[in-house]
């Protein structure tokens, strides 16, 4: 007797999934953050050097990393990746940044601003300014300038009062950029810095001042860039290879394992959708090694289904009925599947713990793929197969991998 409720339950799972996946897959993919090897950008490794009056410590390295990160944020560069390597090195990865020289200048410019008296005495520094410097144009001349504001207006008022009629020079990184004459005391604590070639340079100086000076100087150790075209080509080739693999796996599973193979492939589509949904939702930056790990996970997800199907075929050989063979095959395959997934997760955790850069990216993607495999290839696939068998709609064991005589097909 056909149990239509079980078959409708099977169809409901499939229909609901595709009704959710088809309208949303494009937006999920568009929301995934791509690393510089897929999107283009550059990678640079700096060594933090001793300052003239202070040796580098780990606290100093962390402070320098934070200062660099603040500069990147002030420049509006999205998705930076900064990591401390060893005792005194900082790796900076910026995706989508293609003018490497300008980006490097932003990172290493010391941005030490000083106000000096006519005799060269230091009167104030950039540390006395609020982090609200901004580029603007002079309303009378249209010339670019940088507007700054002192944290303590009294400090600037005292300076401008003392040096009325004299020049108070402004220095940036040891170079004098302005030497104005103080005509009258400035009591508001506001000032402007002139002398920029254009508004772009004024914005750069404002960004430097807002981010503050670097605690320690940096020396470039290595750098490399990836053009947008190379990143796009790598992404296209990887997805193309994954698509070919998916088609070949689909043909093999359906021809060799029949209905269980078809259900396994439906679960595999669910696995792929769940995988990229998690990556998009968690805001994980997807790199080429990470994408390779996700595609490798496709093979692992299929392997989980094959283990369960082969155990089911063993039960057919032992003369079990269709329902008994499916239930016992799934039950006896579970310890092997769990052991394999646990060891894979352990390997991923160790890679993440001891690895750096691309290895960490691979490890994160690997762990996510294992968890997604367990949800789709184990839980959902098992449920769908049992619903189909219990519906009694297709009773011939041959459709489930058995031979016409009742044993497992070769």
From TrEMBL:
Superkingdom of this protein's organism: Bacteria
- What positions does the domain Protein translocase subunit SecDF P1 occupy? 64-117
Report the residue ranges that make up the SecDF P1 head subdomain domain in this protein: 123-215
Which keywords does UniProt give here? Cell membrane, Membrane, Protein transport, Translocation, Transmembrane, Transmembrane helix, Transport
Q: Which residues cross the membrane?
A: 239-257, 262-284, 290-309, 337-355, 361-385
Assembly behavior: Forms a complex with SecF. Part of the essential Sec protein translocation apparatus which comprises SecA, SecYEG and auxiliary proteins SecDF. Other proteins may also be involved.
State the name under which the record lists this protein.
Protein translocase subunit SecD
User: In which organism is this protein found?
Assistant: Tumebacillus lacus
Lineage, broadest ranks: Bacteria, Bacillati, Bacillota, Bacilli, Bacillales
Q: What is the gene name? A: secD
